[in-house]
Design brief:
Rossmann fold, 3-stranded antiparallel β-sheet, 7-stranded mixed β-sheet, binds glycinamide ribonucleotide, alpha/beta, globular
Length: about 230
Amino acid sequence: MTLPIAVLVSGSGSNLQALIDHIEAGRIDARITAVVSNKAEAQALARARNHGLATVTLPHGDFPDRAAFDAALLGAVRGSGAEAVVLAGFMRILGADFVTAYRQRILNIHPALLPSFPGIRGAADAAAYGVTVAGATVHFVDEKMDNGPIVIQAAVPARPGDDGASLGARILAFEHRIYPQAVAWLAAGRLSIDGRKTRLAPAGLPLADLAEAGPCLVSPPLESGF
Ligand code: GAR
């Protein structure tokens, strides 16, 4: 059955666009019930309208406190008929009531290999730290920031000359691939949570086990003989 999802945004909405494109191509069995932004000027809203999607704008500064914003957000999402929530560059922390209402049905994407570099500047913090491998993480959302069980990660090389913008762009290209994959798995009912591990049906293996079968990124590359 097609999964009704709400997508929460704050910015350019390139991840939203990737999701829309995969849904329209029939690769994700989901339908977007509403695109909700806490910023009126977010480009993501225009992307949504271009595809005939319902939009809701809730500027957080218009609300007396965090609880009031959270209640309005929950009302908008519930009112749209969404059964799951996808955070796509949404730069606000969800309150406990919201997380409780959609427990194990909220996904987020973060531009770093969590648990490294949580927060709002993941790619910039990784570049400044001097990592040589960076990446993106899709995870379930719980009450703590950037903390819930990991669904999928992609690693990319980071170079000494990188700043947040150049590294962020390299990461973003893979966000656009792993987020639609994760949402497709969610929509197909293939994800379940077992403690800190996410399991992918039908194999039922922790995703980390599956990843061991894939290639290993070493950055900078190994020279011959090593
Ligand atoms: C993405 O890089 C996403 O990972 C990041 O914001 C960007 C949104 O881009 N999210 C976070 O940093 C969450 N802590 P987009 O609006 O073009 O999808």
